[in-house]
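## retry 2 of 3
previous attempt timed out at serialization; input unchanged, resubmitting
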Amino acid sequence: MRILLVKMSSMGDIFHTFPAISDIKQHYPDAEIDWVVEDSFSEIVDWHPGVRKVIPIHLRRWVKARNKKNWQEFKDWRKALRSTAYDYIIDVQGLLKSAIVAKCAKGNGVDGYAKTSAREPITHWFYKHHHIVDKDQHAVERTRQLVGKTLGYIPTPKLNFGINQNFVQVVKNPRKLIFIIGTSWVTKLWATREWQALTTIALNAGFSVEIIWGSAEEQAIADQIIEFCPQATRPEQRLSITTIAEKLVEAAGVIGLDTGFSHLAGALETPTIALYGATSPVKVGLIGEHTQNLQLVDTLECMPCHKRHCKWLPENSTDTPACMSGIKAEAVWQALQQKLSAQIFSTPSHNDSTQN
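## retry succeeded, writing output
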């Protein structure tokens, strides 16, 4: 059985798809699974042993610069894709762009979400087979159910992200914490003073703290934290995704924001706390007993706004919005301690599907 999955981005969405891959291999061990993904995420997809072939696509670049050269690249890519015939082609992303890409493949039509289940209802016109999946579920479960309905099985309750075996050589450090301070939106950032307070608490409790950064702005925040807490450290250079994954596996626990690396920590089964304010964790937050999505206890009326800029702050402000600044370091530390304690008294197992 040859299966093609189409989910091109983002990083968090890639990790959300891994349990569905594990499900397929559990029910059909001989299935050959190929995956179309944006080139920048090819490295991640290749971590799952159930994926036979990663098919990189440069859709973002092609769309951004619609010239003759990129059009020819796309046609060559489509020709190469159609050199393989698939028994099942599944658009697990459910967007217009992914539906169009799925239609480029050779096979017996495309499977996807029904009109009432899709994120972009127009996509159902591109599918030969439509499947009703509850839109109110977490993205991980929606993907698992879509694939299960396509291939004729019911997913088991337990989750298996299936990527830990790539990092068995990494030795766990029970006294090391990783802080992921960066994210794509200003409204998702946590106040630097709270990071400083949290780092102080962690260091005083006997933990070491390493701060992961990925841009000049994030490096500057990391330096402010380290200036306040000189015992904390950060990498000198920007790290590869694989190197960051190794650090997340090594760590006893992780504190992060609404970003792909927090999802990676959760997928690697490291106790992880992710902070949410402007965005909602209900459908796309971290999942599993070893994770917690932390928000203000007394939510604001404007939460979640899903906006890149807070309407209560001046235009172009880089200040932390109230939905994030209201989360205090002490509460984050208590949440992490609960997860670390639970990890100590639990035996190693796959994640289950309970969202915290």
